[in-house]
Amino acid sequence: MGVSPMTLFLLRRIAGFAVTLFVAALIIFLLLDLLPGDPARFILGINATPEAVAALRAQMGLDAPAHERFLNWIGGMLRGDFGISSTQRLAVSELIAERMAVTLPLTMIAMVVSVVVGLPIGILAAMRRGKATDTALMVLAQTGVAVPNFWFGMLLTLVFAVTLRWLPTGGFIPWDEDAGAALRGLVLPGLALALPQASILARVMRTALVDVAEQDFIRTARAKGMTKSEAIWRHGVRNALLPVLTILGLQFAYLIAGTIIVENVFYLPGLGRLIFTAISERDLVLVRGATIVLVVATTATMLLVDLCYGLVDPRLRRQGA
Amino acid sequence: MIARKTLALAMTGLMLAAAPVLAQPTEIRIGVALEPPALDPTAGAAEAIDVVVYQNIFEGLVRIDQTGAVQPGLAESWTISDEGLTYRFKLREGVTFHDGTSFDAEDVKFTFARLLAEDSVNAQKALYTAISDVSAIDPTTVEFTLSRPDGLFLFNLGRGDAVIVAPESAGNNAAEPIGTGPFAFIQWDRGSRVVLEQYGPYWGEKPALTKATYMFISDTATMTNALLAGDVDGTNNFAAEALAVFENNPQFKVLVGSTEGETILATNNRREPFSDLKVRQAMAHALDRQEIIEGATYGYGVPIGTHFAPHHPYYLDLTNTYPHDVEAARALLAEAGYADGFSATLKLPPVAYARLSGQIIASQFAEVGISLELVNMEWAQWLEDVFANKDFDLTIISHVEPFDIGIYANPDYYFGYDNPEVQALNETLNATTDEAERKRLAQEIQTIIARDAVNGYLFELAQTGVWNAKLEGMWQNAPVEGVVLRDIRWVE
Asked: Is residue A73 part of a domain?
């Protein structure tokens, strides 16, 4: 047929994306439905009359049967309506968008710092393989992986906020109020998040380069008269990027959802804290909406990484695999 | 402990070395651990709501002052009929809501119609069910008719649950609260902060502060850093374990006061073996309150022997009803047929005082042969299991409602105490308005429930605030939930 391998590759990936989303939505809905605890009772506390609790349940639409609520939810999302948060009484999409204004820039800062710091360290270590520089850098990277990011964050706070008072201990000023202050608020948490990520990247980059260095094409390049460094730089790095890309994709997904502890340490209004609070307050509509956004972000990142593979490695494009 | 002291000293050193904090004469940033889920105090039980809005954004007909006494609020005066069934309030004139609409008797009528409506979602609706009619006599006069006398009626009107709202704005109060108080709502950056500003046309005396920002910081170490760095000016109730850092630091003051929180080892009186008085008495003897207070509250709690706040004039000290006595406990258990003890579960909600007390009580009970399995729960699950379904043996919880001894007259309440004598006494108490007689009745109930060892009575929770030393006017005690800003000011 006239379908190119690249189109086929794309179609397969996109179909997989859609199926993943539906299955995830179903699982999220079922799990949350099984969660013990009545949202209405949680809001009204221990002195509320049963009538008041029943009235609130009805207001929150909790008295409809499960399949009806599932279909309403899916139907709503297809129309772009994520529902109304049961505790905050606001559109879920609006609440998530507010938090994204913190989480996305924070993630980007952490990603950029970890790439800018991690990749050169990994490349340098690979080039100096077996030498003292290599050992020192890898000990450093090992420490970076071992140090919990929230602890590193507290250390940063103690030095730069409590003692030197260069930066705030935390909190977030909205972008439209004072963009400079907003950015200043993201510096320390960004660094705290970046440290372990940079360390992981450095290690992965080094390992990948060392593997590549043993390949035939590097030997060929050296036989043609290139120095080891030149050969690694011109031919090795690009080939070593595949595993690094995979890790970057995973890191992005992790940072979007997994920054909750650092958000707590720096009292930032990010997505992780929104979900955590929503779960403990049994705001099921909000938890559902936010988790589905995370699922979309994660699967979309993976899709993007797959497509990047295609760019980096033309063999994948041709095979359509 | 040594490590903590060293850290405290190190931090004190850091503070002294740091540049002096700039004085902010009229603005304050207050750190609070919990963010309110919404800002309407009439549609939710969360204390975090009142912390932000009570007496700041919203006001009731009356208000509760720092000592727990009732003071005039939006009503400047009132008269009570002899039989205690009719309350006539004279309302203040010239009061406006923050959206500019004026306040009058119709708003009061609307507020209570909404509170008592069939579809009302007021968390404390039960407190106001004695109201049979609210009528607006004229724009500044409102008359409440009660179906039965209610000794706590005025106090309850002063709670956050009964603040006056306007029909034009009530529906939006959860996200954009509009009240009559000295501070108006400006903005809420969810997950981060709520900003209030002084309301210019306020009817009463102007507060010293022009702006107040509530910052939501749930992590204790983070709050400590924020206080030390001067990013927040104070917090109304800080974790007891972190106070050491501030106690000897001249830049801060630590305010230790009382709350209305009776912390109890709640016992399921419906279940065996707890339905047996001897077993409950044995458990009471097994408890060592001082040890629990030291371990769970770092010594800040006040021991209680019954379900009543120690600072209340009606309080009776009954802590010696069943003194700590391991032998007596063992003997009572043997008499009840549990010479070899028994096993039970202790369900613990996610608050430090409960989790810590739970571990100490488990070891104290082990000494007399009662083996406890500790089950940690989050709030929503605790509310469902323990509170709604009454599926528990023991739990630890602080009852923060003021004057809530009436829960012992409700046999359907979660701990299931069914004593007709207490029920009759409570009914008389509710219908009595004479102070001396009310005190006698309240003390009689206190004595009976202490003797019956309905629950294990542990301690009254303390309020431990940490504030910048240059701030004055904060409430030391918490007779109601809230952080009242009206008297707070910076001094040199």
From this structure: no
Tokens 């179903």 belong to residue = A26
Pair type for strands B86-91 and B141-146: antiparallel
Q: Which residues of B touch A89 (CB under 8 A)?
A: 38, 174-175
β-pairing verdict for B183-189 and B370-376? unpaired
Nearest-neighbour CA in chain A from B340: distance (Å): 35
* pLDDT above 90: residue A259: no
Complex confidence, ipTM: 0.77
User: Which chain B residue lies closest to A57 (C-alpha atoms)?
Assistant: B121
More confident residue, B404 or A280: B404
B7 contacts chain A (CB < 8 A): no
Residue B134 pLDDT > 80: yes
**Full-model pTM:** 0.83
Instruction: Compute the nearest-CA separation of B350 from chain A (Å).
Output: 10
Percent of chain B at pLDDT > 70 equals 95
Write the residue in B11, B120, B219 that is nearest to A55 by C-beta: B120
Q: Which domain holds residue A246?
A: 92-319
Q: Which residue has better confidence, A17 or B71?
A: B71
pLDDT of residue B224: 94
B123/A44 touch (CB, cutoff 8 Å), yes or no: yes
Which of B124, B128, B190 has the highest number of chain A CBs within 10 A, making it the mutation to test binding with A? Answer: B190
Q: What is the pLDDT of residues B203-243, one digit of tens each?
A: 999 999 999 999 999 888 899 999 999 999 999 999 888 89
CB atoms within 10 A of CB B308: 26
Q: Do B124 and A165 touch (CB under 8 A)?
A: no
Instruction: From residue B400, give the alpha-carbon distance in Å to each of A234, A275, B261.
Output: 70, 28, 4
Number of domains making up chain A: 1
Residue A252 maps to a domain: yes
Q: Give a yes or no: residue A300 inside a domain.
A: yes
Test B225 with A172 for CB contact under 8 angstroms: no
Q: Say yes or no: A39 contacts chain B, CB-CB below 8 A.
A: yes
**Rounded-to-integer distance, Cα A85 and Cα B190, Å:** 13
Asked if pLDDT for residue B15 goes beyond 90, the answer is no
- In this prediction, residue B218 carries a pLDDT of 87
The pLDDT tens digits of the residues spanning B343-385 come to 999 999 988 899 999 999 999 999 999 999 999 998 888 888 8
What's the pLDDT at B439?
94
Q: A221: domain CATH number?
A: 1.10.3720.10
pLDDT, position A279:
84
Cβ of B228 under 8 Å from any chain A Cβ?
Answer: yes
| Cβ–Cβ gap B384/A170 under 8 Å | no
A162 CB contacts (<8 Å, ≥6 apart)? A169, B11, B14, B225, B228, B229
The beta-carbon neighbor of B14 closest among A90, A163, A268 is A163
